[in-house]
């Protein structure tokens, strides 16, 4: 495995000029999406860089953030107390977060580094979904730990949350994320008081209620099941993950959350990582093959079309910053610099472009658009539209797939149709249509496509086409 030389690239990355501060995010009035203070929608296109703070140098951090910003990402998920022995293993320049592993004795130089990452992200136009700690520092289920925030002493977690948010000045480009790949309860042990205390400490330091999410472990039950009444929780999260094989029905998980009487923005915070072995957890086996860009697209498009407020991409070599200095984990097969340019990661912006090309805040899931052909598993099609019926998107996971679409779900006499290619971001028009139904077959190449349907009077265009 070879990490390409960064010197020439980094030399071109001059310290950025002071950028306009990013505005704080909040939940849209209908509870489903994110908005900025002026009411404009914000699409969560995240990347998973868990070990960015702990395992990368400042120059590497700068290169990573600049690259993801240029590629169209909007938010980066990273963790302060890292998973890979984050309390005892120092950063590349010798920093550890605490003296003697004691959270009441923070090493300010380490937390200054955290602040620098958050500030650099903002200068690149990026928000940061910041985990104060990975879950092994709270639970005793697995991982290196140690457990420094035990359920017996939630005050310790509250003090740490207050310190961290205060040290970071509760910057507006931070979305706080608790959990760290752990359930809030396990084997009769209730960890919820620890997370509630940490959230209280963060809120106290901020002086207002910041956005707080929770990153759970993988499985069909996200926070809408495990933390349904947590007053501090603003965002529902789930992890369709990489341990369940192909085509985990994330669309069902998202649809459940979207239909709640008191909804919150819902996100798949950890779908299948690109280039991760796809056999089932807990024994990863590279011989069975790896998830590729197609696997990633199927999960991300179907979760967003089912009603998610965005999605987080992940690459198996990036989360651990794999390279000459950081060990290969679970059969990662390339360094993180190479992984930054993998096809699935580069294609995620095409999903963002498509969603942002139409009104977002009244977008709803509507699989009833698909009268015939929806199917299940790897063939499952998912549809979304706006409440006013001016447009609709239908995700076809396979080429040459016939379907019958109910055009009466759109409030238009004439519907303009397009095929949108999620691999390239280009679209091809397929004319105007009238009548109650439309029979289509996805193009012969592929494999996957998005059918775009528009009220012909609206003048909408599709990314990758000219008006």
From TrEMBL:
<feature type="domain" description="Apiosidase-like catalytic">
    <location>
        <begin position="28"/>
        <end position="360"/>
    </location>
</feature>
<dbReference type="InterPro" id="IPR024749">
    <property type="entry name" value="Collagen-bd_put"/>
</dbReference>
<keyword id="KW-0732">Signal</keyword>
<dbReference type="InterPro" id="IPR025277">
    <property type="entry name" value="Apiosidase-like_cat_dom"/>
</dbReference>
<feature type="signal peptide">
    <location>
        <begin position="1"/>
        <end position="19"/>
    </location>
</feature>
<dbReference type="Pfam" id="PF13204">
    <property type="entry name" value="Apiosidase"/>
</dbReference>
<dbReference type="Pfam" id="PF12904">
    <property type="entry name" value="Collagen_bind_2"/>
</dbReference>
<protein>
    <submittedName>
        <fullName>Bme25</fullName>
    </submittedName>
</protein>
<feature type="domain" description="Putative collagen-binding">
    <location>
        <begin position="364"/>
        <end position="454"/>
    </location>
</feature>
<dbReference type="InterPro" id="IPR017853">
    <property type="entry name" value="GH"/>
</dbReference>
